[in-house]
Amino acid sequence: xxxxxxxxxxxxxxxxxxxxxxxxxxxxxxxxxxxxxxxxxxxxxxxxxxxxxxxxxxxxxxxxxxxxxxxxxxxxxxxxxxxxxxxxxxxxxxxxxxxxxxxxxxxxxxxxxxxxxxxxxxxxxxxxxxxxxxxxxxxxxxxxxxxxxxxxxxxxxxxxxxxxxxxxxxxxxxxxxxxxxxxxxxxxxxxxxxxxxxxxxxxxxxxxxxxxxxxxxxxxxxxxxxxxxxxxxxxxxxxxxxxxxxxxxxxxxxxxxxxxxxxxxxxxxxxxxxxxxxxxxxxxxxxxxxxxxxxxxxxxxxxxxxxxxxxxxxxxxxxxxxxxxxxxxxxxxxxxxxxxxxxxxxxxxxxxxxxxxxxxxxxxxxxxxxxxxxxxxxxxxxxxxxxxxxxxxxxxxxxxxxxxxxxxxxxxxxxxxxxxxxxxxxxxxxxxxxxx
Length: 436
Ligand SMILES: Cc1ncc(COP(=O)(O)O)c(C=O)c1O
Hints:
Elements: H1 11-14, H2 20-30, E1 35-36, H3 49-65, H4 70-78, H5 88-99, E2 108-111, H6 113-125, E3 131-137, H7 141-149, E4 154-158, H8 166-178, E5 182-188, H9 202-214, E6 218-222, H10 238-241, E7 247-252, E8 264-267, E9 271-273, E10 279-281, H11 282-285, H12 287-294, H13 299-311, H14 316-319, H15 321-341, E11 351-352, E12 360-364, H16 371-380, E13 383-384, E14 386-387, E15 400-404, H17 410-426
Helix pairs in contact: 3-13, 6-7, 6-12, 8-9, 15-17
Residues 40, 113-115, 140, 142, 189, 194, 222, 224, 252, 254, 259, 264 line the site of pyridoxal-5'-phosphate (PLP).
């Protein structure tokens, strides 16, 4: 019988760093009565099965209203679709409306979530083993995993309380070049980052675009949480400030519609010239990579998302206001409960950041907050969280927890933070020298 040693397979399969999300969900399953701050699962109280068929019908009506013949509509939905998708027009209109991102439909590729957008972009841009991806650290596991599966080396750049320092990016790019390697792209989540919750200030956004031009970097801007800002507080995306086409924008409908649709998109309006001198957008050129990864994205999922966009006049931000209010209420409940249990001026050794939106915040505690501590917390105190060290690319974060509050109601949050406070207060402090 054919069998394998795991380490005879691709290195990414055995790499324990690729396992962090599985470990977190297994721990959650092992302690089912623990209140979980460990995931970033979207709130699912607003889902209604009837909406699925409603939005598909809405999209079909939209095609009919546009004068698309019935037979063509049938083909569009039942046949293999165009590789780059069916709903690029609708997504381009949404981007203009929601983010002031002005790109033609040809610059949009509909993908199997953010994840495929990242795989396609990385596959197209990285050509040699000496090409390096710069990434904010701590970082979302999806980007690290995508790079790992494609054998692309990643260099983490430590972020501060306000996200990435553009000068640190320039420095990292130069350091990589000094090693004889090529820094190709920079990955970051400027709005309510996962895992830390940081937001990049406007001045840093502008400077980052300059640094990208100076250091010849493509910026991979990942923005699944930007819609969940407080009214009037949304920041301009890097892509909307990008006059030099330095930014490839990676979008996801996982948080705004539903993760099961597995739909996202890549915006790549850079020009690509082929050997005949003909030009196309980068999104169009990369369709060869997409074709070989997934052939095309589900037409049914695209119909649902297309229907949502049409129904809401392409204004997803307004359509998400109620949902944004749910998340903001949860964020506020988390911050208030933390302030109640760890009052300012008391010597508890606990601090946290105060994001203005998103799904996550960072809690710093006076002991090692690793997986063993998390298990103890889940088993003995019935509250779970994610060790921040899992997300650091170059080590660090040993005394930090990621608290994801998106999928807990305010009452559960108050109870959860009260359990967490007991766990923290009853865990012996370690001296600062003991910190790795
Ligand atoms: C930073 C970041 N990017 C993207 C995503 C969504 O990815 P996908 O569209 O593949 O579900 C998530 C979800 O957790 C995320 O936190």
